[in-house]
Structure to design on (237 residues):
């Protein structure tokens, strides 16, 4: 990738930032042409061994994009382009590699990052929502609340509604209110009755468990599972 970043420099930067109170989110990419299985394992080991200075992470796979630097020199990386299959406007190319991690193998390594115990408290939060949540709760709150999330349909079980929901009051008694779940991005349009219920839950600072018990329909609409990979069945609604 020609990033020219030394391992020791990366660790030092992460440690200095963490010591200064900065939340450090790492993004992992698997399958860059030329990567080996040993290289991919080093990436995973890095995240596991440096949990004290890596607050959260996301993982994805390499995409060969039109006009990217590597695209102009893809033969130097042992890359072979596949036929476009009439996707004329697509800016990404399917490809094969002469050696190392294939695009299919990269998916295996991406999935291998899931379920690392230390990060179960933060991996329920899309990275786009991290700053939103950290603006209304401390990092310690997030680590405390996170482990209970999958027990409550993908919602932060110990959090109050206002900690993870943005609520827009209706302009008139007949207009719908808007509720945005910052954890999963779900946008709800609430009629008058549901809006009064949501407003009451917010004023009372109810937590997720209480809402599940007292207002199950509202809970079901807020809840959302990205997957049932851990053996937790998605809820309906």
């Amino acid at each position: 990738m020609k990033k020219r970043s030394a391992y020791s420099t990366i660790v030092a930067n992460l440690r200095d930032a963490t010591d200064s109170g900065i939340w450090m989110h790492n993004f992992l990419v698997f399958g860059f042409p030329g990567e080996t299985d040993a290289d991919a394992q080093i990436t995973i080991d890095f995240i596991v061994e440096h949990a004290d200075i890596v607050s959260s992470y996301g993982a994805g796979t390499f995409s060969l994009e039109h006009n990217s630097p590597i695209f102009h020199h893809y033969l130097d990386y042992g890359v072979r382009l596949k036929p476009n299959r009439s996707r004329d406007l697509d800016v990404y190319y399917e490809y094969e590699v002469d050696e190392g991690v294939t695009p299919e193998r990269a998916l295996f390594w991406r999935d291998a990052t899931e379920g690392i115990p230390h990060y179960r408290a933060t991996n329920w939060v899309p990275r786009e929502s991290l700053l939103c949540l950290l603006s209304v709760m401390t990092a310690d709150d997030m680590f405390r609340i996170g482990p209970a999330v999958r027990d409550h349909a993908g919602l932060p079980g110990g959090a109050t509604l206002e900690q993870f929901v943005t609520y827009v009051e209706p302009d008139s008694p007949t207009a719908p209110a808007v509720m945005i779940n910052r954890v999963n991005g779900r946008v709800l349009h609430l009629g008058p009755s549901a809006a009064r219920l949501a407003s009451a839950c917010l004023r009372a600072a109810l937590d997720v468990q209480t809402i599940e018990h007292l207002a199950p329909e509202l809970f079901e609409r807020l809840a959302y599972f990205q997957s049932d990979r851990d053996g937790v069945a998605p809820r309906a609604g």
Q: What stands out?
A: The first strand starts at residue 25 and ends at 30. The CA atoms of residues 92 and 158 lie 42 Å apart.
